[in-house]
Amino acid sequence: MNRMGAHRPIETGQEAREYISSRSVFGIKPGLSRTVWLLDAMGHPERGLRFLHIAGTNGKGSTCALLYAICEAAGMRTGLYTSPSLAGFEDRVVVRGMPIGEDRLVYHTRAIATAIASLDADSPLQPTAFEVATVLAFCHFADQKADVVVLETGLGGRYDATNVVVPLVSAITNVSMDHMEILGDTIEKIASDKAGIIKQGRPVVTAASGAALGVIANVAREMNSPLVIYGRDFRSVEEERSLSSQRFSYWGRRRDLLGANLSLLGPHQVVNASVALAVVELARNAGLAISDDAVRAGLRQVVWPGRFEVAGSDPLIFLDGAHNEAGAIALQSTWETLRLPKGILIVGCLKEKDISAMIPHFAAIAKEVIVTQPAQSRALDADELKLAFQTYQRELCITVADSIADALSIALASRAGKGPICVTGSLYTVAEARAKLGDRRDGVDVTPVS
């Protein structure tokens, strides 16, 4: 037998993060058997927890952030599990506003590593990095005695490591084309994968439409799960907007919320908030005590970095993680709804993304584009990205920057009369820019390049 053997002792947070990252060699593999095995080895921490489980192509992270803020405002000890993080692994696992501490990260990682060390090196049960992270999160939420956990899927739904729970309520925000190499090359196939989170008899909320909605409705019918649909069972209207918040009204199945203030920007966030409110209605039926005052407070206070985030006021700087066609459409819609002038876009994307579908929406709001690439192995080369923009619109002013820091420097040096700056194309691009802009706010100059 070829066992993995004793792992290197895990004594620090850095060693814990390195151990989790080392599991990336096992890639992305379909199936739940590895997660179930590891949960069994850890005593099934998920079984004592209550979950709100959220999937979707776009908006699932925002919807999770909204639900988390609402549950926190209701006084519940709330857990939040999301991916990826813009600031570091610990921010993916949060309870009561506090990312998992280094001591608990080390403790749970050490226990998980000990369990995995019992497996043969070539065992089909060797878990991936995301599976390890998910089980670690469940262990922490159980350890912290969370009242409820808001749980975001990582990729798809049916075979996602999070899909081992039986939630109070599920939600599928929407379905569009993304991750086709894994989830399938049609809307129907992608919707079928995401609909895999629907559990027998448990209600599900969605803002999906068209063919995707048809697939979700069929699965919900087969699972005897009540299906609550945006536009049919609940609706919303945006009423006022500014660069700091927007106001909207919501009409639900049993309760309405009129004139609510939402700190997230863009028409798509009103839809995401409406999905969250429909989930809240159903969660109340399942025993969660959430008042209308808590709902209003959560909507007003929610923070979700990198989603049309205002990162600077002089000049105006936005960070938006649009990384597929639907995200690019939402960015253009938000920009135009706020009546912003065309600006400087800093764009860095990943190789596997459908760049040609995003570029028309980026170009529609850009006076100038600076193409670059995040420090990521899957990053698309900036010269290739420049060629893609030129193929679409040759007269567009395009500059190549070697790094995101250089791109920011160029934009800040040349923005006179050119409107706002927006960093987009990937959450990895946004994360780097956010870190650099944070340095700038803390007094470290972003020196213009010559």
UniProtKB/TrEMBL annotation:
EC number(s) stated in the UniProt entry for this protein: 6.3.2.17
Cofactor(s) demanded: Mg(2+)
GO cellular component, as recorded: cytoplasm
GO terms assigned for molecular function: ATP binding; dihydrofolate synthase activity; metal ion binding; tetrahydrofolylpolyglutamate synthase activity
InterPro entries in the record: Folylpolyglutamate_synth, Folylpolyglutamate_synth_CS, Mur-like_cat_sf, Mur_ligase_C, Mur_ligase_C_dom_sf, Mur_ligase_cen
Pfam name, any one: Mur_ligase_C
Domain Mur ligase C-terminal: 306-423
Catalytic reactions on record: (6S)-5,6,7,8-tetrahydrofolyl-(gamma-L-Glu)(n) + L-glutamate + ATP = (6S)-5,6,7,8-tetrahydrofolyl-(gamma-L-Glu)(n+1) + ADP + phosphate + H(+)
Keywords for the protein's UniProt record, in alphabetical order: ATP-binding, Ligase, Magnesium, Metal-binding, Nucleotide-binding
Domain Mur ligase central: residue ranges: 54-280
PROSITE patterns: FOLYLPOLYGLU_SYNT_2
Homology family: Belongs to the folylpolyglutamate synthase family.
Name this polypeptide is given: tetrahydrofolate synthase
Organism: Ferroacidibacillus organovorans
